[in-house]
Amino acid sequence: MEINAYQTRAELLLRSYMLSDSFIVYSSVIGGIFACKMVYDLSHIFTSIYFKGYAGLSKPQQVEWNNRSISTVHAIFITAMSLYLAFWSDLFFDDQLSGLVTIRSSTLSTGVLGVSLGYFLSDLAMIFWYYPSLGGLEYVVHHLLSMLAVTYAILTGEGQLYVYMVLVSEATTPGINLRWYLDAAGLKKSKAYLLNGFMMVFAWLVARILLFIYLFYHVYLHYDQVKQMHSFGILLISVVPSVIGVMNLLWFWKIVKGLMKTLAKRQ
């Protein structure tokens, strides 16, 4: 009876999102897309004015420079909102009086996911348009999985907590982009480049490895609630973090090897 009651509630929740909250969903996604366009244009304008080396970059490098500006702004925004919603607000507090943690959501949490979905759509479109200069197959897989999980969480309200835990991993993006910027600016041998390398390793370890371990532990502790989700939602919680987690380990090894190589050259 409890499972049937939950399924009925989830179906009613889905109708609610599709009807009463459709404006929030569509406007946030469209707003995210327009925000990406605005950041891209502003990056081109201000970088052309304040960084003399920008004009000397090739056209593909200029495109990537502005594209990384978009991902940096999105990373700062979604990391701050994910930390707030997942760990600081009372939305997902482990309080039985608040109902199942797997189906909790709010207008704010849904709107933020919509903005992030708008970013992933924009970035994936640019990746396909300039393929493979802005990223190879691994970036396509990463974005598609992220979009699938975010879209499901938006439309059903299920599993938003776990989506936000995964999105905290975007905290590593500014460091990755700064590394590329320093290289493009000819500062690969600078102290800033080396310091950024250490910060990347630390941030990656915390946000993309330790946090993922905590996510799986949280799913284990709340499995009685997780198993009451729709089958597709359970599949997403099982597959998406696992695949991205493996990719994170592979990328982490590459980052560590790159840092060790940089240190070896300085000795």
TrEMBL record:
Gene Ontology CC entries for this record: endoplasmic reticulum; membrane
Membrane spanning stretches: 23-40, 69-88, 108-130, 194-217, 229-253
Pfam families on file: TRAM_LAG1_CLN8 (PF03798)
GO term, biological process aspect, one: lipid homeostasis
Main subcellular location of this protein, as a coarse class: membrane
Bilayer disposition of the protein: Multi-pass membrane protein
Assigned keywords, A-Z: Membrane, Transmembrane, Transmembrane helix
Organism classification: Eukaryota, Viridiplantae, Streptophyta, Embryophyta, Tracheophyta
The protein, known as: TLC domain-containing protein
Localization annotation: Membrane
Domain TLC: 60-264
InterPro entries: TLC-dom, TLCD
